[in-house]
Amino acid sequence: MNIDNKRLVSQQIIEDACEWTIMNGVAFRQADNTARHCPFSIAPMSIEREVYNHLLAVTPLITKLIHNVSEDHDFLQTSLSNMAKADPFFGLLMSRHQQLHGDAGNKLIAERKPLLLMRTDFMDDRQHGAKVIEFNGIAAGMGPFGQRAAEFHSFMKNQWPDTYNQWIEDSSAVPADNHGLEQLAYGIATTAKAIKTDFSDQGKPTFLMVVQKNEDNVYDQHLLEVELQKQGIRTVRRTFEQLSTQLSSGENKRLLLENVGAIDVVYLRAGYQYEDYFAPELNEPVCCHTLSQIRLFIEQHHVAVNATISQQLATSKTMQMLLTMMPESEYARWGLSLEEAKMVKSVLAEMKPINVETIKWFETEAIQNEWVLKNQGEGGGHCIFGQDIAEKLNHLAPEEYDAWALMQRLYPHERDTPTIAVRDGEQTMVDDLVSEIGLFTAYYKGKPVTEFEGYAGYLIRSKPASENEGGIHSGKGILDSLVLID
After folding, report:
1. Hey, how many other C-beta atoms are within 10 angstroms of the C-beta on 458?
2. Where is the Glutathione synthase substrate-binding domain (predicted)?
3. What CATH number has the domain bearing residue 358?
4. 133 part of a folded domain
């Protein structure tokens, strides 16, 4: 609810908080090159320590599973072929994957080394416990913002303790450590140095971030770059369009960037949607051909890449559905023990494929508010809820079915006490806040590359329970952090 002329937190404190976020890079760039602070919560959310520890234990296992699935190229081709026919963008990705990993006779040689920087998003459902919402294997950003949110709440606790204690659920709760920015940078730096060593090169390792044109979420990206620079890494940024004329091959499959030199790590913060490959001035007969070929070119080189095309396929909604539906024993194919497989399955929410039978079941038997309909899209705006699902299902052509899936809808715990959300310098009291928990992991060639066995910090995004879209960037979400209760 909105506050009517009565400020529950003094304007001085709100201004202090907003200035802290801007000063520490927790911001979005505006069209006129000014910055606006990220929306944030004035105090953190609490989670039971047991739930949190379970997520810390299971998330690296999910990453291990996804890495091994992503390198099982025959499985990707056979299991996702129908989805690729139903979703044109994934059809494009699948054709590129086929060129790299398909029939031996005509395939290109994939020399790239997989660096899996992944964010696994959970909600702690009131009835079923913590469950996965989705895997994010490409452009899995905002780890830096996650760490900054924890630092912001520490600032509030120290600088404005009365306000902090007024809005926290349990004053005895202990902040959960969050080194997301430092650990993601550590994993990338470790990987970059390993590639550099492969070539016995001198000088600083070089990190290339592939970004969207006119991106507004640049400060999160720059925070990561600054941390990498502290760890001895040179950083550069380019769009796909720029790379189309600036990349070349060196000796021994070394990837070279014009006026920069050899590249050790390529990190894609773009490439998860058609628009990232669309270049109207090229006037292509086949949309997005030229810029999507850049990924093929990169992956033919001895360079660490996140996300590889196969990682993007392996973290698709359809793969999430297939892994959810298959028996635990089948996870042995990807190196998981039965005990590890059971842990992973314990956090996977039920999913169903879309077909004639499912549609009939949904219309006649399902409790419709217990499901959400998802397509393959990344980011906000790709989910359909409640009564809108039946209408959408009735309008889908059969050839579109495999691009969609039904997933058990999660209803997380609402925060016990109201909190203050701050957006554009204005405060609002929210009395039904729920949170989404994203855990980051970093694995290079299937092995953990952080100081915490692959774990690399967390991102909390909270939103009013009445809102469906919880993205910080594209929805009604606010940045948040975690405190632990026993």
Report:
1. 27
2. 206-314
3. 3.30.1490.50
4. yes
Does residue 39 surpass a pLDDT of 50? yes
Q: What is the pLDDT of residues 242-277, one digit of tens each?
A: 999 999 999 999 999 999 999 999 999 999 999 999
Q: Are strands 383-385 and 351-353 parallel, antiparallel or unpaired?
A: unpaired
Q: Are residues 202 and 302 in the same domain?
A: yes
H-helix segments, 122-261: 143-159, 161-167, 180-198, 218-230, 240-246
Both 245 and 110 in one domain: the answer is yes
* The two three-digit tokens of residue 195, written as one number: 């590639």
201, 250 Cβ separation under 8 angstroms: no
97 shares its domain with 224: yes
Comparison of pLDDT for 417 and 473, the residue scoring more:
417
Q: In terms of residues, how long is the chain?
A: 486
Domain membership of residue 51 (yes or no) is yes
Candidates 391, 348, 345; CA nearest to 368 is 391
Looking at the predicted structure, is the pLDDT value of residue 106 above 70? Answer: no
Question: Is residue 3 in a domain?
Answer: no
Please state the rounded mean pLDDT for residues 180-195: 98
Separation of alpha carbons 220 and 267, rounded Å: 14
CA atoms of 304 and 312, how far apart (whole Å): 15
| Exposure of 2 in the CB half-sphere (CA atoms within 13 A) | 4
Q: How far apart are CA 306 and CA 360, in angstroms?
A: 40
Same domain, 131 and 72: yes
The answer to whether residues 136 and 379 touch, using CB atoms and an 8 Å cutoff, is: no
pLDDT in the model for residue 379: 62
Residue 298's CATH number: 3.40.50.1760
235's enclosing H/E stretch is strand 234-238
Task: Give the other-Cβ count within 10 Å of 97's Cβ.
Answer: 26
Produce one character per residue of 306-330: b if its CB has 16 or more CB atoms within 10 Å, e if not. bbbbbbbbbbbbbbbbbbbeeebee
- Reported as a single tens digit per residue, the pLDDT across 294-330 is 999 999 999 999 999 999 999 999 999 999 999 999 9
For the chain, the average pLDDT equals 94
Neighbours of 412 (CB within 10 A): 21
**d(C-alpha 469, C-alpha 486), whole Å:** 30
Query: Both 345 and 435 in a single domain?
Result: yes
Q: Element (H or E) spanning 28, and its range?
A: strand 27-29
Its domain, for residue 249, covers 46-147+176-349+430-485
Same domain, 362 and 327: no
Question: Distance of CA 368 to CAs 109, 361, 386, 406, 463, Å?
Answer: 47, 10, 5, 11, 22
